[in-house]
User: Which sequence fits this backbone?
């Protein structure tokens, strides 16, 4: 049910105590389906949208304490989730500007940037790492 999706999403990522992080940076990871939408995934999309707004609120609330909060929007990745049938997968990949699936290390690099000192002025942002899914 949608309530389970919401509870799961809100207890992950930034819901943990951001003050416990050594660099005082928060990053949440979400999937690209939010902005484009997909049939049967309204509840999933709504929870992801909620995480984006929640992160923006956290950024505003904790910014005066020099704590940043951001979102990484990951796209279609190799490995991890159960892939769709080959025809659906081919259609999904062809809808991407880069015409390929992403690699987990590419998402890790985006997160590493956001938690590094180089991103100390970045907060309340959504970093799109989805291969041009909604470009």
Assistant:
């Amino acid at each position: 049910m949608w309530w389970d999706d919401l509870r799961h999403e809100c207890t992950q990522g930034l819901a943990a105590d951001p003050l416990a992080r050594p660099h005082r940076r928060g990053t949440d990871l979400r999937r690209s389906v939010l902005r484009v939408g997909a049939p049967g995934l309204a509840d999933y999309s709504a929870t992801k949208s909620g995480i984006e707004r929640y992160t923006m609120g956290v950024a505003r609330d904790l910014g005066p304490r020099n704590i940043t909060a951001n979102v990484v929007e990951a796209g279609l990745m190799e490995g991890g989730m159960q892939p769709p049938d080959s025809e659906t997968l081919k259609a999904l990949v062809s809808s991407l500007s880069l015409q390929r699936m992403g690699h987990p290390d590419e998402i890790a690099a985006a997160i590493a940037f956001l938690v590094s000192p180089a991103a100390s002025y970045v907060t309340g942002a959504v970093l799109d790492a989805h291969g041009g899914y909604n470009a």
Notes: The chain has a mean pLDDT of 79. Helices lie at 2-10, 33-36, 42-62, 86-94, 104-114. Residues 98 and 131 are 5 Å apart (CA to CA).
